[in-house]
Design goal:
alpha/beta, Rossmann fold, OB fold (Dihydrolipoamide Acetyltransferase, E2P), 4-stranded parallel beta sheet, 21% strand, binds S-adenosyl-L-homocysteine, binds iron/sulfur cluster
């Protein structure tokens, strides 16, 4: 989400004649777009910001912008911690960025706090989403990201997102489709639709499955991905839409968070372990090739050894294709932060290591099942170190293979010859 927001900020400034530089030294404007989902992310952002003081000393006219969730959370406290910052820009204030930077050049000694969380999308959008031609995402010209909604209404008890990104707001279908068309015209072949909970997308009478069907009609678009799916909101209609589509990739990122019912309830996730497992069964029945990835957390307040073991069993039962694992981090202002963070850091670390070890073992086993199979791979680019090309399967697995690069951007059949935990090695058929 931050990556997509950074892209929008970059495009807005490019329209005003700015260009990107590779280093902060010598830049006229420095923007830090930050994440506050865990304390660690916030600490890293703030210590990096503090380290930029030397750049400020060398160039007193540089405009410093702190953007994103840390800005939204700490607001004017940022100026107390780091007085050289000119602008604190909240998550819903991106569109004001060019104007605020211009003003900061005029009045370098004024501090600007722009952190109003806008209640509704029209106020945020005002024709902007459809009128701005973003171009493609920075990582690869072939893959673009399109934010389809902002904010979140779920209030999982540990999560800061609803507080720093405000209430859920969906973009109109027509705006999303024209943004996708624009990206495809710019050369994108694959689009990632982004939202904190894409399954609760709603614009007039269209739900997420309806949106997918509209996006699918865009000529020249070859692959559609989306993230994140909340398990409580995955509908049969969505499963059938993925099953019946040739463009929607067979990959669901379906954060489980925990395998223990007691902890899931404390997290306010809205499903039980059984419901999660039933959902997985249903999805696998309809879409046998589905790749399921997840987020898991250890050390939530009150997590006992038995709860953690339930999470380990869940990993074994589901056989995830990848898992992002985290130590619980208390976020001020959230419901869970009112409870004692009672799992000692050492225990969190041990549980995380044990969980990672199991996940890696399971993922490798899963990858080995692809040996000898032919997968559709979109050729992305030459890998940085190896003299190989790299691309992704429809299930979002990274594959390295030999080639001369003429096929970059094409979908090729690749036979899987070697399986590792984080990647596959193959040969074009
Ligand atoms: N909207 C998505 C993800 C949001 S944040 C969803 O509902 O799943 C990405 C991941 O960060 C979460 O899935 C969760 O595993 C993790 N996370 C969020 N808050 C956290 C916290 N306070 N401590 C540790 N991990 C957290
Ligand atoms: Fe946070 Fe839950 Fe919303 Fe995801 S669904 S952003 S975890 S509150």
């Amino acid at each position: 989400m931050n990556d997509a927001d950074s892209e929008v900020m970059g495009r807005l400034l490019e329209r005003e004649g700015y260009g990107k530089v590779d280093f902060p030294e010598g830049a006229d404007v420095i923007i830090l777009n930050t994440c506050s989902v865990r304390q660690h992310a916030e600490d890293r952002a703030l210590s990096y910001l503090a380290s930029l003081k030397r750049v400020r000393k060398e160039n007193p006219s540089t405009v410093f912008v702190l953007a994103g969730c840390v800005a939204q959370r700490l607001k004017s406290k940022i100026f107390e911690k780091t007085p050289f910052v000119n602008i604190v820009l909240g998550t819903d204030n991106i569109l004001e960025l060019p104007k605020l930077i211009e003003e900061a050049f005029q009045k370098p000694n004024e501090k600007v706090l722009a952190t109003e969380v806008k209640g509704d999308l029209p106020k945020l959008a005002e024709g902007f989403w459809s009128s701005l031609s973003y171009g493609c995402a920075k990582n690869s010209e072939l893959m673009g990201q399109v934010t389809i909604m902002r904010g979140c209404d779920n209030f999982c008890s540990y999560c800061i997102v609803p507080y720093v990104r405000g209430r859920e707001k969906s973009k109109p279908v027509s705006d999303i489709v024209s943004e996708v068309e624009q990206k495809v015209a710019d050369g994108c072949k694959e689009i990632m639709l982004l939202g904190q909970n894409v399954n609760s997308y709603r614009s007039n009478s269209s739900d997420f499955a309806d949106l997918l069907r509209e996006v699918e009609k865009v000529n020249g678009l070859e692959r559609i991905r989306f993230m994140t799916s909340h398990p409580k909101d995955v509908s049969e209609k969505l499963i059938n839409t993925i099953r019946d589509s040739s463009k929607i990739c067979e990959h669901l990122h379906l954060p489980a968070q925990s395998g223990s019912n007691r902890i899931l309830e404390g997290m306010n996730r809205g499903y039980t372990r059984q419901q999660y497992l039933e959902l997985i069964d249903k999805i696998k029945r309809e879409i046998p090739k589905i790749s399921v990835t997840t987020d898991l957390m250890v050390g939530f307040p009150g997590e006992k050894k038995e709860d953690f073991e339930d999470t380990l069993r869940l990993v074994e039962d589901v056989e995830f294709d990848a898992a992002f694992t985290f130590k619980y981090s208390a976020r001020p202002g959230t419901q869970a932060a009112k409870e004692k963070d009672d799992v000692p850091l050492e225990t969190k670390k041990e549980r995380l290591a044990e969980l990672n070890e199991l996940c890696e073992k399971m993922v490798l086993e899963k990858n080995r099942r692809l040996l000898g199979k032919v997968e559709e791979v979109m050729v992305e680019r030459f890998a940085r170190k190896e003299k190989k090309l790299v691309g992704r399967t429809r299930g979002n697995k990274r594959v390295f293979f030999s080639g001369d690069g003429k096929d970059i951007g094409e979908l090729l059949p690749v036979e899987i010859e070697k399986a590792y935990t984080w990647s596959l090695l193959g040969r074009v058929r």
